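User: Okay, second chain of the day. Same drill as before: sequence in, structure tokens out.
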Amino acid sequence: MMANLHPKVATSQVKPSLNDILKSFDRTALYGNKDDVESEWNKLHNKSWSNVNTSEKIYSEVYDDCDSAGHKRFGNVAKFAMALLCLLQMLAWNALFKLTVVKSKLRNKLSLDLLQNLMMVRFSLQKNYGSCVNFNPSPNMLKLFNVKMYDFKDSKSEQEQKEADDLFLALNDSTI
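Assistant: Same drill. Structure tokens below.
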């Protein structure tokens, strides 16, 4: 998708159509009429551009290009390309953030039981309250949160299983 918007492709005389990409993005208020974008795209090679090193530079120059009356000649295609560049950069940062949250040293050291309990708490909070902002713990839940819940020496004991079951029941208690 972004390979089609590369500066070398954009400035060449033979280039792919943008129709497939434009069909995926229905934000004509952002970049204008799809036919205008395609028309401007096909005329980009008629002018020599000085900043053809990166997509950001060329589309910034394309956006600033005006005719003698001061009207932007390639404004629609430039807005479309810059919006797509911003979207892809945001998606990349979002994926990187999620990766760092999931793959952290602390998370890798957590036991499977604790991870399952954390996931259960997260699911229950989302299901019952929407977020942790609206959550008010019951007295029974507060009683269950104590030093014993951090003791991993005897992780397969019946007492721990009973505490986990009690925590689960307290989270799903509809009177909370």
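Residues 32 and 76 are 6 Å apart (CA to CA).

User: Thanks, on to the next one.
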